[in-house]
Amino acid sequence: EKLIAHVRTRYKGKLYYSTNWDHFHVPQFWHKLDIIGASGYWDLTTKAKGDTPTEQELAARWEEIQASVLAFSAAQKMPILLTEVGYHTLPWTLSQPWNYVDDKKSPPDPAPQALGYQSFLTAWSSKLKPPTEMAGVFFYAFDPYFGGGANDIGYGVRGKPAYDILKRWFDRQR
Fold it and tell me: Which residues on adjacent β-strands are paired with residue 17?
């Protein structure tokens, strides 16, 4: 809290702090900030690798997550910013989007990455348009210089189906 107070003496803009998706309820200093920040690497399914969840299963999981996140935001009387939402290109990205370590050298699988982004956008798009309790979202890694391509197992979307999904969504926001 002392750091926040110090920063406020030098910076007049909005301040936020970002926590992990599974710990956004832990910090006790939210009232000192302007925006709650949380990464968005929630597990969307418990299905085994290669067993793709249905759109209905993903929608139900996002409803559960959204209810929790928005209830917390309302209780704090603050908007929330999803500071990182991203999916790697490994088969388990929907069950462990935070786990990009591939000890077994799995081949890239862009389909679950695309499904992750599509399910997020389907669930959250209406909440990302003002007026809303959401401060916004950052997609990781939506960067023209960061990875991508058919052989990339990382979070980059360039050269993968997820790129087109995000591009269409951004185009509609204009």
Answer: 36
